Amino acid sequence: MKDKTMNQILAFQYKYEDFLNIILNHIFIVYAFFLVISVDGYSRSFLFALMLLLVIIRGNYVFYFSYSIKHPIVIAFFIYAGMHYLWLIGTDNIQWGQRMIDQARVAFYPLIFFSFLDKRFALQILSSFLLGVMISEIISYAIHFKLIPWQFIIHDIVYPWKSHPIDITFYSAYSPLDPSPFLHHSFYAATLALSAVILIYRLISENISKCIKAITIIFILSMTVNLLIIGGRTGYILYFILLSSLMLMIYKKQALKPLIISFSLLSILFTFAYLSNGLFTQRIDQTVTTIKSLYNNPNDFRSSFGSRLGIWYYGLDVISESPLLGTGTGDQMDAVYSKINDHDNFLKQMPDMHNQYFSILLQFGFIGLLVLLNLYYQIFKFDRQDKELNIIKQLILIAMLVTAMTSTYWHFYLPTYLLLISAVTIDRITIKSDIPKPSIKLFSAYTILALISLIMEKLQ
Prior knowledge:
Elements: H1 2-33, H2 42-58, H3 61-68, H4 72-86, H5 94-104, H6 110-113, H7 122-144, E1 151-157, E2 166-172, H8 185-205, H9 210-228, H10 233-251, H11 256-275, H12 279-296, H13 304-321, H14 332-337, H15 356-381, H16 387-403, H17 413-425, H18 440-458
Antiparallel strand pairs: 1-2
Helix pairs in contact: 1-2, 1-7, 2-18, 4-5, 4-15, 7-9, 8-9, 8-10, 8-16, 10-11, 10-16, 13-15, 15-16, 16-17
């Protein structure tokens, strides 16, 4: 009886294996869409659980996972996540340690993703991510021009399975004057910068129709302007760095003229944005004032950037005491707080190090830094044998390197980067049959799945 049941299961798996791979790749496309428009991340959690279930049902684990466990990028992500668990030994702040584990465990996900992703879906996944960014910026503009309120929250909803009323947030901007509808403005600004430059590259490199070209130009401009009406200064810097890198990667020794043209256009746009006396003006003036203040008194940390310098300054003392192994997972902030003197006591309000490199050094020492740098190196050296995707991969890597200087990979960056990197570095075909072409039927299926995911998020 058991043998008969097992044979039936194997027959089912063999029959529907290809179909399940197709479904998995399509779910992943919807998963990418929710990276920038999910408020709490529950929609992504639902979709991930659904993908995991289908991977289990599909079977043939040896065949699919033998590729995953050998992929250098999967291994690098696995080591990064595993380090957080290993360094829990001796951790004093269990609560912060758990937060770091919650952040790092998504680095195990590529082990699942690489077991079913088909390289032919790479551009569709990127397009889905960019569509999510586009929808987010449409809402951002609607908030900016006061067409909709800056928050859409339904209060005191009673669910039978909840012990108390809850609030349902559909979107909530950073502030009425800083219209970042779903993400913190720093995350949103970096996403806009990366998305705009990816679109610039696709505009330059792809042979597309005039209609698609016009739509692409419109969204490049709208993303650039949207970047200037929100408060994320990291995004301003990242835009310049990514655009410069793109020109150098495409034109190499002939890059001078494209660089001059690009920077001239950006300078004109940024000048108009500055003269508009909006949030961009405030951010630039604030930065200049901070730099002057720090120049006159390097120990004055009472500013936005000064607070970051202050927390890094005291972090260096902790690193010098335990340079090789660090303090342990989640103990970094307690260790830094203990070094802060009474005069700078306000720095204890800083919730994290605002720098991924410092955060890793503090927790795991130089061993941890090598683990992080190995992750970057494996991404850099991996060759997909596709020029377009390789350049996009390098742009994502540059974004990882730059944003790590001003933020930690907490909550948003790590899930986003590992998904995008998974899409552009997968280098095999898992689907034997023909891939369904874009159609109204397929788009309807995406829409239905997205709505189900959104409903599941709001029912949490």
